[in-house]
């Protein structure tokens, strides 16, 4: 059996979706189940020339042979879910734990209408903060209370347990990133829940002793969207000049770009219980590395960067993404097994 968690090591948008999609094709999980806050998350997955942005459905959807589950810790917006299931044609493969909290129109109005959340914190306006607040107050409906979700309902922890007992592979995907964890991030400029690997296990009802690997995803040039401290942030004209520009999947806001943060990477790896790390965007360290699929073909500049990053993180870097497309990746996990 093998159960791995994939989480973001910086402020979100590290490229977890692409890493999950790659691992899924390589390791053939029977279940890909997501944790994290809810539809404030945006994953972009590029397959060939087609780009998909998803907020509710696990980003592993591109791997066709896995059940796609949403763990009980996650907030579900039934409208977003319905839209994505139709857009992606994944009906019959998507399951929602019956205990998931529900986001209502009222939660969205409260999120967008709140000067504190929308302006000071720079929330995504997806209703997650108010919905988690209602959930803590024991006021929130659950997935099982909504007739339109009846066809998706599942006991996700039980399905995962069954799969693991049959010696199958299960992937648990995190959302957001370490720096916006309610517990460990830059409070109050954080999201409405912890985002570390322990939380992702809890979100899916998987006990800590059942986890074999925690893969923490870092991007060579971290980004942050929304307000809050970002110690390695670059001036926008500098990152623009480097050709680095990113826009949020959910809000389309321009992302703030920063340089590699070794001390944050180390602390994040520690709290996440990292066993292996993934680095995305190595082609931004050296453009000559774009699309490379073998470690030996990386340039010295890229290898030097990876050596320093591995020293900072304190755990082996086993996955290196060299471009946005699914196949543009170096996978040296075998060398560390
Ligand atoms: P909220 O989670 O919508 O309440 O937003 C709180 C803060 O977390 C804001 O700065 C958001 O931009 C940020 N945030 C929430 N989810 C994500 C994500 O998936 N990626 C990156 N930033 C996020
Ligand atoms: Mg994102």
Structure explained in plain terms:
- The protein is of the alpha/beta class.
- The chain is globular.
- The chain has one domain (2-336): Adenylosuccinate Synthetase, subunit A, domain 1 (Adenylosuccinate Synthetase, Chain A, domain 1).
- The model has no long low-confidence stretch (mean pLDDT 96).
- The chain contains 11 helices and 16 strands.
- It is 30% helix and 19% strand.
- The chain has helices spanning 16-27, 78-88, 105-113, 115-121, 128-136, 156-165, 197-203, 236-241, 262-272, 282-285, 300-313; strands at 2-8, 31-34, 43-47, 50-54, 67-70, 75-76, 94-97, 101-102, 153-154, 169-173, 213-219, 223-224, 256-257, 276-280, 317-321, 329-331.
Number of strands: 16
Cα radius of gyration in angstroms: 19 Å
Question: What is the percent of helical residues?
Answer: 25-40%
Distance between the termini: 15 Å
Classify the beta-strand content into a percent band: 15-25%
**Tally of separate helices:** 11
Q: Architecture, according to CATH?
A: 3-Layer(aba) Sandwich
- Encode the helix/strand succession as letters: EHEEEEEHEEHHHEHEHEEHEHEHHEE
Which structural category do the helix and sheet elements fall into? Answer: alpha/beta
Poorly predicted spans: none
How can the largest sheet be summarized?
Answer: 10 strands, mixed
What strand line-up does the widest sheet have?
9-7-5-2-10-1-11-14-15-16
Which terms summarize this structure?
337 residues; alpha/beta; Adenylosuccinate Synthetase, Chain A, domain 1; 10-stranded mixed beta sheet; two-stranded antiparallel sheet; 11 helices; 16 strands; 30% helix; binds inosinic acid; binds magnesium ion
